[in-house]
Amino acid sequence: MQHRIQQSKKNSSFLDSAKIRQAIEKKKDILIETEKNIIPYPAYFFRNKKNKIKREGLLVTWSETRIIDLIKQANTNNDRTFTFIGGKTSPRKEAGALNFPSKAVCGTNTRIIDHIRRENLSLEDVDTLIIEIPDKDNESLEPFFADIEFIISKIPSKPNIIAISSNIEKAENQLKKLSLHPQIINLSMWKKSRTENIIIETEDKKQDKSFIVSSLILAYGLKKTICYAEENLVEKIAKELTRLGIATGTILKNDVKSKIEKNVQKFSSLEIEILIIEEGQDFPPIYTTQAIIFTSPPSIKNYNQAINCLSPRTPSTFVFILSNYITDNNIEELKKKVVTDMKKENIPNIEQVISGFLGRLKEHIKEEDTEELEKYKKLFKKNIPLNMRSYVSGFMLKTILQTKDIKITPMQDIFIGAGKNRKIFPGDIKNLLISLEGVKESDIGNIRIMDNYSFAEVNETIIDKVVESLNGIEFKGKKLTVNYGKKKL
Hints:
Elements: H1 18-25, E1 30-33, E2 57-61, H2 64-76, E3 82-85, H3 91-97, E4 104-108, H4 109-117, E5 128-132, H5 142-153, E6 160-165, H6 168-177, E7 183-185, H7 187-190, E8 195-201, H8 209-219, E9 225-229, H9 231-243, E10 248-251, H10 257-268, E11 274-278, E12 291-294, H11 300-307, E13 317-323, H12 329-337, E14 342-345, H13 350-367, H14 370-383, H15 389-401, E15 411-416, H16 426-434, E16 444-449, E17 454-459, H17 463-470, E18 474-475, E19 478-479, E20 482-487
Parallel strand pairs: 1-6, 1-7, 2-4, 2-5, 3-4, 5-6, 8-13, 8-14, 9-11, 9-12, 10-11, 12-13
Antiparallel strand pairs: 15-17, 15-20, 16-17, 18-19
Helix pairs in contact: 4-5, 8-9, 8-13
């Protein structure tokens, strides 16, 4: 039975590791620890290989499904690093493909041996061998490593071995039987997690989820985002985003393959910013996504598929899950088996939404025809008196964003007796506030750092707790004075 494995999950990227880079440059044998069922895209190991004619790389995996997934990812990224064998293609077609140049061959152990015996595949020039070791705890590795031993015997000069496994101890023991003693690179040495898993707490099931989705997209400045939504929400979310001028596409359960591929292509080329997928449809092979929004708590399968779509090269990526926490068993299952670092946030407040919307407007203005905009500007100035223009602008924002039912979080300044002279930065104040139990990022407003003191806007409902908790504590080597500032009007 084939088991699907994920690629680039949680933004795992070998590119993050100086340890791996140095080991490759020194041509050391290495054994890299990965998370179970998670193997990042391996083309990185062959990026410096220039000679496609000699074909100096070989990647061996045990899973036919892995080959199929790698083919999809290579096609999406227009990557021509590998010649693939061992998927659903027939051996005869693969033999033809092996006649064409590539930096490396990627295949299952059994199919590679088959082509070696048929003399379709020569390993004469191979100097780098990547071994993706099965991660099933209850399955013996003996047959797989017997095949690896045979493959190595067909390589004239000892290759640089790069082994990848989630079970380091078991893999190391098997490699020793082949007289290989690789340098161990543990998961913590290379994996850089940049994905924030955020639960957006909703009050009840009657809340307008299409409005919440658009608020998240505006407040967080999300561009390349996949929204995984229930059937009754797909059209509603699409209409709301289109109304706000956000290019949107949809993939429904019954869509034909050509329509799905067309929307995936548009999403990949930034022709559309948001791709809405109807619940029940599988995630397509997209690997450049900035954020995923689930309108209800996903199953482990759907979460894993979604994570696989996140870009490993984007500095910060997000997974948002809308949940009222009353009947969300899926959340507890995810926490137990997949994600341990989920944090709770409220629905973005009006200030965050408006700020994000205005940011988008400024970006669009830069792309617009200035002569065309000049006409509208003159009409606005001609018809709206100077003393009313800001009010009219505010009313237009309120109308466009339909914010009449949004509650504005009441904020009040707190005074903090530390500033620039003590090398205090806004991030220090923010982290100090978030460290308090019950304080969320949405409870914090503007932070202003002066020479000897600072001000921070805090949710009015928790200000007493904040002042009481922080006043008199030790902060950066000195006792901190914290008091109430002026109330925001």
